[in-house]
């Protein structure tokens, strides 16, 4: 018998018993207090391929589990433009934390736009520098952060590589902290893959400082010279897509459009990355729509992002659940049982997974699948149920022997 792509052998006698019971046992509608609801609002598993993405490389990831849901050229290094600033921010926080100040050097103050207007010798708070870096992609802030935390751009690029190692990045080379990939770069361009940017984006969302920053649409502060600043996040994804909560945009002539985007709906978060895209928003929105419409139940590519420090592996689904759905609101009555039983669930068009709960003992389900056949899934422990039946038969035999009035033996 094939179940979800794997082969499981059942005892012949048991399989025959299940098939017979599924065909002859009436629905147990007399026990309304133990019904198991099958929701009609479940989202059907995907039956379509992901949308076409106009980008040199892209990836869609379940941020909650780290599972790669879809992608193309995900391990191919590309010029990331300003999306590399996600790693710049993570490196600065690793080295100095979110407090303290950033001193502005001449190299920082004279960077090509985009600039926040830092002046040589100023002391900026790390908080304001990080908001400037992530919301408006300030290149002067990127260089000021790098030189203040590591002493030089070269030293900071080495620290970015260490951050990458800690995160489990596989395909990246770090040089410029701002994402310059032309003559404006001091030591040359950085390169990152879509896979690595998804890892960095996921780490940013989990970070207590960066998570709120990348989700901020507008930030106001007063600079060290008394200038009032109002930063408006460059990412239009935050206003174009419901639930969008990050992360970073980028663009250079060589890299073209780049985006690390995230969105959360119904407690689930997705991360999408596009590199070398003429339009960064349309493909990401289509990927999010496809991903959310097919969660849960989306199998993915089988590859996962590495665990974040302190993160536990995703728990396996409990053994006492069965995934089915109905096209309409349906309830399946389940009688309280203490031994193995077969409960037929008939005429339930399976469209998407839901979890059956509320059973009171080991139960075998025979689920009719609209003419495809019976899908049999075990809930409980079959061996336990059989052994319990045997014990009961033994007890009944002992009781009958005790009831017999046999002549006393002299």
Give a structural overview.
With 410 residues, the protein is of the alpha+beta class. Helices cover 30% and strands 21% of the residues. It has helices spanning 12-24, 85-96, 106-109, 126-135, 139-150, 153-167, 194-206, 210-214, 237-240, 281-293, 382-403; strands spanning 2-3, 6-7, 35-38, 57-62, 68-72, 101-103, 123-125, 218-222, 228-232, 244-252, 256-265, 268-277, 323-324, 330-333, 342-345, 354-355, 363-368, 374-379. It has a 5-stranded antiparallel β-sheet with strand order 5-4-12-11-10, with helices on both faces. The protein has a 3-stranded mixed β-sheet with strand order 15-17-18, covered by helices on one side. Mean pLDDT is 76; it is low at 1-47, 316-388 and 397-410.
What's the total number of strands? 18
Oligomer status: single chain
Mean pLDDT: 76
Biggest sheet statistics: 5 strands, antiparallel
Our Rg estimate from Cα atoms comes to 30 Å
| Unreliable spans | 1-47, 316-388, 397-410
Given helix and strand content, the structural type is alpha+beta
Give, in spatial order, the strands making up the sheet with the most strands.
5-4-12-11-10
List SSEs in N-to-C order: EEHEEEHEHEHHHHHEEHEEEHEEEEEEH
Helix content: 25-40%
User: How many helical elements?
Assistant: 11
What overall form do the CA principal axes indicate?
globular
Distance between the termini: 60 Å
β-strand amount: 15-25%
């Amino acid at each position: 018998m094939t179940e979800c792509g794997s082969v499981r052998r059942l005892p012949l006698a048991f399989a025959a018993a299940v098939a017979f019971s599924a065909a002859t046992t009436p629905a147990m509608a007399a026990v309304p207090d133990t019904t198991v609801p099958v929701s009609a609002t479940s989202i059907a598993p995907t039956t379509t391929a992901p949308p076409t993405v106009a980008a040199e490389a892209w990836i869609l990831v379940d941020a909650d589990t780290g599972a790669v849901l879809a992608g193309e050229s995900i391990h191919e290094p590309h010029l990331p433009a300003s999306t590399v600033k996600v790693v710049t921010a993570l490196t600065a926080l690793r080295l100095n934390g979110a407090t303290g100040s950033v001193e502005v050097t001449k190299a920082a103050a004279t960077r090509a736009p985009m600039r926040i207007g830092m002046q040589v010798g100023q002391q900026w708070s790390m908080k304001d520098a990080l908001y400037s870096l992530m919301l408006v992609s300030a290149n002067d802030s990127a260089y000021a952060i790098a030189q203040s935390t590591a002493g030089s751009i070269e030293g900071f690029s080495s620290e970015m590589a260490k951050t990458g190692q800690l995160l489990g990045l596989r395909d990246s080379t770090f040089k410029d902290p701002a994402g310059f990939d032309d003559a404006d770069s001091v030591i040359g361009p950085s390169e990152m893959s879509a896979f690595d940017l998804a890892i960095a984006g996921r780490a940013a969302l989990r970070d207590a400082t960066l998570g709120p920053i990348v989700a901020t649409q507008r930030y106001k502060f007063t600079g060290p010279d008394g200038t009032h600043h109002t930063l408006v996040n460059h990412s239009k994804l935050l206003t174009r897509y419901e639930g969008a909560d990050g992360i970073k945009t980028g663009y250079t002539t060589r890299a073209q459009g780049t985006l690390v985007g995230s969105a959360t709906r119904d407690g689930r978060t997705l991360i999408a990355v596009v590199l070398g895209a003429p339009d960064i928003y349309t493909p990401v929105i289509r990927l999010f729509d496809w991903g959310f419409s097919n969660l849960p139940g989306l199998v993915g590519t089988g590859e996962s992002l590495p665990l974040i420090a302190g993160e536990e592996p995703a728990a396996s689904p409990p053994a006492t659940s069965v995934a089915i759905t109905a096209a309409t609101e349906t309830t399946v009555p389940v009688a309280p049982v203490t031994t193995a039983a077969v409960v037929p669930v008939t005429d339930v068009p399976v469209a998407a997974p839901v979890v059956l709960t509320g059973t009171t003992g080991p139960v075998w389900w025979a689920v009719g699948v609209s003419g495809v056949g019976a899908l049999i899934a075990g809930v409980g422990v079959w061996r336990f149920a059989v052994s319990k039946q045997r014990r009961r038969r033994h007890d009944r035999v002992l009781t009958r022997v005790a009831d017999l009035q046999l002549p006393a033996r002299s």
